[in-house]
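User: Hey, quick favor. My workstation is busy. Could you predict this chain's structure for me?
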Amino acid sequence: MTGIHSIEPMLEQLYSSVLDPAGLHTFVGNLDDDTDFASGRPQFERRRHSLPIRHDPSSCSAAVALSRERRHAVSSGTGVARLLQPHLHTAYAIQRHLNRLEAQLHTLHGLLDRLAAGVVMLDAQGHCLFANPAAQLLLTGHDGMQLVHGRLRACVATDQLRLRALIDLAVSGSAAFDAQMLLRDLDGRPALILTIGTLHDHDVAAGEDGDRARAAVFVQPVIPHPGKADAVLRELFDFTTAEARLALALFDTGDLAEACERLGKSLATGRVQLRMLMEKTGCHRQSALFRVLSVALSLPGACSSQRHPPTSFG
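Assistant: No problem, here it is.
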């Protein structure tokens, strides 16, 4: 809190603890004629016979000034508190709303991170704002589509022309839009299925934000023939035959003991091989391993250049 004249220390502590976190600066006491509130606050307008409140949208702050005129003067801290009460209530309501929005944002990001399907959010220019882990793995796999300078780019030129046209229609937001397309890898084989749709925001003011998500792209790999699953895992992560079989059994059962029983091996051996699976895939948790296996087992194939753990999204 900033004060022209000091007030009772206990009240000053109270105002500071409530107002400072909310970005409110309060000027309390008799105002001198040469007091300049405009310095650093071009939005603030000084008035001598009122209680002016000016909101600064760039910093979500406000300035409160009490008139020095005798008929408007406040003689005690209680009077000051009474005048500030509605503004404290507003500050508290704003802070509570911001906290609720932040919690909702964390929850939504957590849900997107746990989806087996890839999700990519695009802004009005078609630049990538967000990609969940499943999409990150597909975009770094060089099969069908990559992220180039912040934009989605198909590996095949003819696919790229259609992809660019569909994204432009989706981010324009002029009407509801939803389309699907198939992307091929460099060998011409079906690789990815994309679902591209417009994201509608009912908040008119939010439409002016340049970094708002305008479209979503759902990325799903084409399911390979089941007989190739073992070979795909060995090619992608350099698994041994035994490790690949354990990965498949673990993915099917979701339980290490049951997977070991199916393969006829001891639980101790299964734990050793599970540690190798985690190390070779770059995973630190079993849930993350399942997510990687879910995407890897859906890839159309693997080339020798993919023998590395999944890299972080950049």
